[in-house]
Amino acid sequence: MIKFYSIAKSLKNAEFWLLGIGSSLIAINLTTVLRHEKFTSAYISFLFFLTIYFLLKEKRHNLNLESEIFSSCLGTLVIVLVFINSTFQINIGILSILPPLMSGFGVALLASGYQGLKQYRKELLILVFLTIRSFLVLLPYQIDISLLAAKLSTALLWYTGFQVNRSGVMINLPTGSIEVYPGCAGIDIIIDLLSLAVLFIFLFNLSLQQKIIVPIVAATLGFIVNGFRVALMAIFVAQGNKQAFYYWHQGDGSLIFSMIATLFFGCFCWFLLSRNERENQNTTDYSR
To answer: Where along the chain do its domains lie?
Structure first.
């Protein structure tokens, strides 16, 4: 009885320390993102960490919290490196996107050792996707879809009755023209929606077909919504309204379109879950 109590107490202490270390690492990583990137990136990162928290909370009673000396030392070393990098703000180039993944890997080693890493497959894979997202955010101009964005915005203007023509990435109206740069082509919105799509796939039970469809819908919605944004900016330029152009280009207007895209994607996810629930209910009723 005494032995059982000591084991339970040690497990509770281990959970307490791991929770404290994990919370500190999350705070460090979010602070780093806020320091170097946009608020949207910090918001998406917070959702990634929140998803990991819910996944771990759901299976916390089934986790094996036993780690050997080597794994504990390696995990501690990795965590210390993250703390050092945050404290001294070391410029390590492309490696600056690795701290979230390093944090998760270090805590997993510290909690369950090398043999127990398989318990955290989903959580570590989520951090891999977060790392990929950070990499894409650092290289927005390397993914050039400006020509496609210009074609879409030109088509939207033409179908709504404007006299418009296109020359490459230049959208020409009778009284003004705009050039669609890679940074304005909507890649940021697409990356944000793809990030939400990844979290949606991990949080809910979806079929393989739905797991393929969800990212495609997310990218398509982001691209189309940004096409309307570019078309609107072209109209403002043609009207000579520079204040409105800068608002929708660099001001809060760009965030509004991101919110609209997120809302549409949220509605799609709600529709998908509602459909799955109805199908499950029909299957249950039929089996009875």
So the answer is: 2-138, 142-287
Q: Provide the residue-wise pLDDT of the chain in tens; the chain has 288 residues.
A: 444 334 344 445 667 777 888 888 888 888 878 776 677 788 888 999 999 988 888 888 788 888 788 888 898 898 888 888 777 766 665 567 788 888 999 899 888 888 888 899 999 999 999 988 888 877 655 678 889 999 999 999 999 888 899 888 899 988 888 888 887 888 888 999 999 999 999 989 898 999 999 999 999 999 999 999 999 988 988 888 888 888 877 766 778 888 899 999 999 999 999 988 888 776 665 555
Chain centroid offset of residue 68 CA? 33
Neighbouring C-beta atoms of residue 15, cutoff 10 Å:
14
* Positive/negative CA dihedral, 268, 270, 273, 275: negative
